Amino acid sequence: MKTSKRLTEVYNSAQVIPYDRDGYYIIMSDCHRGVGNWGDNFMPNQSLFFAALQYYYKHGYTYIELGDGDELWENRDMDQIVRIHSDTFWLMSKFYKEQRFYMLYGNHDKIKKNPKFRTKYMQEYFCDSTRRICSLFPGIEVYEGIRLQDQESGWEIFMTHGHQGEFINDRIWFVGRFLVRYVWRTLELLGMKDPTGEYESNRQKNRTELAVNRWADANEKITITGHTHRAIFPIPGKSLHFNDGCCVHPRCIMGLEINQGQIQLVKWSVLIREDGVMYVGKTVLEGPVSLGEY
Known about the structure:
Blueprint: H1 3-13, E1 15-18, E2 24-28, H2 46-58, E3 62-66, H3 78-84, H4 86-97, E4 101-104, H5 115-121, E5 124-127, E6 132-135, E7 142-143, E8 145-149, E9 156-160, H6 167-171, H7 173-189, H8 202-219, E10 222-225, E11 241-243, E12 252-259, E13 262-272, E14 278-290
Parallel strand pairs: 1-8, 2-3, 3-4, 4-7, 9-10, 10-11
Antiparallel strand pairs: 2-12, 5-6, 8-9, 12-13, 13-14
Helix pairs in contact: 1-8, 2-4, 3-4
């Protein structure tokens, strides 16, 4: 099935979320949280992610996780992922309790669409610091797409992971999961990289991005995706497709901020002051640009 048809299907079934014109949103994706071994690509950036999320929580942002938050192709047991990254999940649960968190699934965590999986793994967790069972995301829905919509004008932003229409990652995703879990995971632990994941060929990424660009422009919809791990911040009038990058770059994590009607691409990394002190800080890479210009 072509990408355009799949994106239309996702758009038509997407959850509509009211857009607050004066609100603050942070969109990130492709964390690929794992179980703490050499194949856990999130491990090197977990402190960056936690520091960024603390900032966004303190400043009243709504966090939208745009798919592949957890690496559930390589790993069967999400309990272990939550245990290894319990501080991250604790903070995410605080967003959720305040109705400031929306989770979408991608190809690597598509199993989250299954209500039985969510009931088993996403309702509660064991908190090491308090030594008791704590609430995680009780009753959470995990979406394939959402539409952040202004209730007065109908203007909206469409968000989805961005893998739709790809042969291995969408149409036969269960085959891709089998290959990653039983073949490439072992090779990755020996130093090789999974070609179906973030290290897939630039040719495939180009095809995917071009297909999403065409759909966004043809349907005149601001569209935000992840999946390719390559950030996109279009020039107004040239395209309507944004990509939030990923959280598994070697030295940074990236995301898209929407602040009171303006959008900007940011990265969080370890910075060094003139006196040599190291700290986690935010750098604006593109923008801000008013969404009205698109």
